[in-house]
Amino acid sequence: xxxxxxxxxxxxxxxxxxxxxxxxxxxxxxxxxxxxxxxxxxxxxxxxxxxxxxxxxxxxxxxxxxxxxxxxxxxxxxxxxxxxxxxxxxxxxxxxxxxxxxxxxxxxxxxxxxxxxxxxxxxxxxxxxxxxxxxxxxxxxxxxxxxxxxxxxxxxxxxxxxxxxxxxxxxxxxxxxxxxxxxxxxxxxxxxxxxxxxxxxxxxxxxxxxxxxxxxxxxxxxxxxxxxxxxxxxxxxxxxxxxxxxxxxxxxxxxxxxxxxxxxxxxx
Length: 268
Ligand code: IPD
Ligand code: CA
Ligand code: CA
Ligand code: CA
Fold this sequence. Notes:
Blueprint: H1 3-26, E1 34-36, E2 43-45, H2 46-62, E3 67-70, E4 84-92, H3 94-100, E5 105-112, E6 115-123, E7 128-133, E8 138-140, E9 143-144, E10 157-160, H4 173-182, E11 185-187, H5 192-201, E12 206-212, H6 214-226, E13 230-233, E14 245-250, H7 252-266
Helix pairs in contact: 1-2, 4-7, 5-6
This protein binds D-MYO-inositol-1-phosphate and calcium ion (3 copies).
């Protein structure tokens, strides 16, 4: 994608993200219609639906040849990453949205033939927009984010869900317990997109998740890339953007140790 096309799609995407966020804020105290999906804790609300519909309708009207991968069903069924693809999570952190009315984000990535060109993560209630265009740096609102500094493993903070410490099919629990005891601290924010933004901002040094969909990470990958961060699957291989993956995004200075000494050693 050339710079001019990237810039014009970026401006349009940003406008829609800010508009969708404003609508959510204005309706934040309205009564919610909540349903469940795969299990009783997998929540979805009419706000998730309405927000995704807003994006899908606008994208299809403005860019009839663009494609959409998204969570709530208004996207396309894709078998390849060819073309210009919007990868959208209308509300990332629905559980936070329902229970806390904050700590959730709108996440929009735009990919061209599988390459991440634009990433936007909007922390709606805080009114903070993380954004990046490929090769042009990452920003928190108007402020450019610096390249990630060198970090020692022992002084790192990792974003990880507590399920990593429970019996699971990916990694030995004992190895994950050793990891948690070795690093400085762990956090679980409940929004994959905001955890990617946190890695890009350097307030956490890595985020790992067991089973995450393309819409959770598409924008985050672009933003993290722009500050020198690395994203792979949990075992160091390339992420497949057409399916769910266990994913690790982190400061490059802790990547090798994390993958070799923990993830690969503990792999089941
Ligand atoms: C979820 C959040 C959560 C992560 C889940 C995601 P949703 O997204 O990002 O932090 O642990 O795997 O599904 O359903 O709230 O958009
Ligand atoms: Ca969901
Ligand atoms: Ca999500
Ligand atoms: Ca969602």
